[in-house]
Amino acid sequence: MKQSTIPFKTRKDAPKDEVSLNAQLLIQAGFIHKEMSGVYSMLPLGLITFEKIKTIIRDEMLGLGASEVSLTTLQDKNLWEKSGRWNDEVVDNWFKTTLKNGTELGLGFSHEEPLTAMLRDHISSYKDLPVSVFQFQTKFRNELRAKSGIMRGREFLMKDLYSFSSTPEAHAEFYDRAKDAYIRIFDKVGLGKVTFPVQSSGGSFSKFSLEFQTITDAGEDIIYVDHDKKVGINKEIMSDDVCAEFGFNKSDLKGVKAVEVGNIFNLGTKYSDVLGLNYKDESGARIPVVMGCYGIGIGRLMGTIAEVFADAKGLVWPKSVAPFDIHLIALPDSDGMVMSATEKIYEVLCDSAKSAKMPINVLFDDRELGAGAKFADADLIGIPTRIVVGAKSLAEGKVEIINRQTGEATQINITDISSYLHG
Amino acid sequence: MKQSTIPFKTRKDAPKDEVSLNAQLLIQAGFIHKEMSGVYSMLPLGLITFEKIKTIIRDEMLGLGASEVSLTTLQDKNLWEKSGRWNDEVVDNWFKTTLKNGTELGLGFSHEEPLTAMLRDHISSYKDLPVSVFQFQTKFRNELRAKSGIMRGREFLMKDLYSFSSTPEAHAEFYDRAKDAYIRIFDKVGLGKVTFPVQSSGGSFSKFSLEFQTITDAGEDIIYVDHDKKVGINKEIMSDDVCAEFGFNKSDLKGVKAVEVGNIFNLGTKYSDVLGLNYKDESGARIPVVMGCYGIGIGRLMGTIAEVFADAKGLVWPKSVAPFDIHLIALPDSDGMVMSATEKIYEVLCDSAKSAKMPINVLFDDRELGAGAKFADADLIGIPTRIVVGAKSLAEGKVEIINRQTGEATQINITDISSYLHG
Lengths: 423, 423
What we know:
The structure is a homodimer. Chain A is of the alpha+beta class.
């Protein structure tokens, strides 16, 4: 993509009304736009990054055999009254609205109720199970305060997966596979080393839930982790008894700040009971379906990646989720030779991307700007590999390749670029 | 995709609470699920069809040089008060909600205001223009009645494109290109022959707007069309004067029912004036930006395609938007030979899809059901080409290929399937 075609510009300074690093950097670099506290629009660079994260997650969900759907935002009060979650004292972050005829509606903060109700039409026998369904859908949560940028939004995109099993044992089997898929997802987006499966409170569903917590000072949670065993426990449930229950050695656990990037709840038959989602077993008896839900907030994950990898100069994206693989920069020159040579390199890279199995996506800074402004933008945007074309190196048939993370710079021959990148 | 892995089943009968054909068929065939009047969730088959339509539209939008973004649902009242559209007497289909602190918010029924406001940070000079931005985003419209299925939803996905130009002439140039892109989009989704650019009222923006109207009895509009010249005029503005203005010969125009599948509004400087979106021209004077907006409702388009092509047996999808290219059906047999042979054909087709430029996507009916049930489902779902594998033809090394639209059936050798499909 030619950078001159993106109508959204970077900012010289971070926005003054943001206290979180992720929002400051993502706004400054032109990834997102703030509509109001906790409500952010996605600009082209942010949307591409989002799609990369979504693709990684979607592949793992499909690998679990889950079917993709998209439920609605508008929620039927009747369903939520059955589960007891319509009441604002039970769920304190509803956004609600009203139809013309006065009927109250909710904006979905989660989708257990409508999906459970929907599946009553499709699950009737043990032969119909197991089933798993996921979606990428906007959630609305009426947070009292929203100061964590895209890490705690009032409106945010979430991947939510729901599993439906015949027995607790069948549920446990799916749960384990989903847990492994989650570990792979956080690995793939670059957070594997700092992300821990952590035992936490099960809320109203069960004794415990499993959180995936990423260690960062931007986190709102305190977790105790065993770095060697890669396990942890949320401070909320920390006690000698709970440590013993999970076989944790309290002296091996170290307290750190972390952000919850994913979670898994054992729902049991809470929703299938109240909404009547039953199946007939082989003897013909009607049995409530055992459910689990598995969430990853896409905005929160993107914000966490931003916080974990950013440096003083700006964002630093892991390759797997970077909006582009290459930032190709034409330095200014007097006679236009550099621009036309860079244009040619861009075309060669785009052509090779079409035929390659792993296409290389290039952001080409073709703007009429000075070298300083271009480098500052490239640092801010944080694409992993930078190729700089200047008059001096061009005269020698070379370009400079710079690693955004390490700052390491190497010169290579122009003719070697493709093999260097694909090699 | 193996049909046994889709947890959503077809229904024997159309839902009784739906009066529109599109909702009846799409629900019965397992494409969508009704949450409440005018509010439908997308099931796997519906979501795949949606994505196919979106890809066709996205390609054309990117071809116009437009940048993709995703604005938010939650809307800041302050912006809409500036344009005068917060008032429920001006816009009578708002859904509104409230923050914990009492601040009123709207749910976006359109996005002119926030996008115009956002671009104030990015457009300052004539050098920054022209700019065009599009999104696929859910719109919320508090319709008094919603009986047209997914053709008039209270919550629905829309592609909205907005253009920003320096002068009316530059706007007209973009407008013409966008109009051509719209004509190509309706061609590509299979509606070209029955879709007409139609002059209509410009509402509060300008004297006229351009609608794209698809002729169907399910339509809510009456349009007068000249079939030869492929132009038309909406009944709302039909008069001798208007006919004369557009050079239409009234006697050549024929009244038909139609549904508006797209529209283009000349917004002029209505929003840039009130929201202060100005640019500096070459002399340094501050000039308001000239805007246009260009909408296509994705649900309405899918519903229209369903209505236009359906027959007595069910849905009939044009190839370009069908959820799958091939419905591969294994007929029941006693010894499992047919199932294993069909499984092999499925694998070959999937493998060839991986290497082909135009991959062929296959829905493989591997369910343990009788031939009648499988054929009825295949008719209902409406995938263009059906490959039927039965014991008798298999013994001769053949399969039957059936065209869903014409019903035409041919037998071909199993070894010729790939070349038949790719040829």
